Hints:
Blueprint: E1 2-5, H1 15-18, E2 24-29, E3 39-44, E4 48-51, E5 62-70, E6 73-81, H2 90-104, E7 111-116, H3 133-144
Parallel strand pairs: 6-7
Antiparallel strand pairs: 1-3, 2-3, 4-5, 5-6
Amino acid sequence: MCFITETWLHDGISSGVLDPKCEFTVLRKDRTMSKGGGVCALINKCFRIIPVDIHADYDDLEMYCFDLIVSSTRLRFFVLYRAPSYDGETLSYVCKLVKCLSRFHSSKYPNILLGDINFPKLNLINYCGPSDNIHQKFFVFCDSV
């Protein structure tokens, strides 16, 4: 398995370029409104995956969600990217991200968040970080699941 953030992929680049030997299932969410960003997961075809249909309300999030099934174990993966901005729209974006993660996380099996959320001062091991609304919104979510 390989997880990539800031792929810079777009609809002009086929998934075959990423996997010319067709060994992987290529899951991707490209940024559509501007250059850069995007996420991708390359999952070996020996694994069974089930994409999770995220509601269109969250189309602007750079995130792909899927379940991976290995033997009798099921894991839910969220591959995500958040641009490193801290402007007026950042709190709104983080609120939407937390709302989406809260809605689609699984209470039945483990959830794995991978990617780059660009919170370099957020320390989830020691449960500390900046006290601004942006960091705290994400911290509270992580602490609650």
